Amino acid sequence: MSLSGLAGKKLVLYFYPKDDTSGCTKEAIEFNALRDKFAKAKTAIVGMSPDSVKSHDKFREKYELAFPLASDETKETLAAFGVWVEKSMYGRKYMGVERATFLIGADGKIAKVWRKVKVPGHAEEVLKAAEAL
Fold it and tell me: Active-site residue 24, yes or no?
């Protein structure tokens, strides 16, 4: 899958830390539940994390996700979007994915960005922005 294949369409590109973890699963399920409404708004959905294609395939099958998950094991795209960041947990610093969503217009320009996303209600908020675009 290539993002260039979506040229001329609106796109929700959401970045998440890891397949099959609680927050990432909830976020994927929320986007999946709204996929028909996103389709009506002529907006594609793509989730991206540094997990492998094999991991994504298992995750998609387990939760019956009907949109693509892109793998960025090299973290080049994550870095380009500024979501590969230093994080801290229990005083330990490490590199990881900042949960973020980019709404890209049909013209290929970023229309709206959500950083440090809190999952509950997020997909609905993105849908409203996509419908208004």
Answer: yes
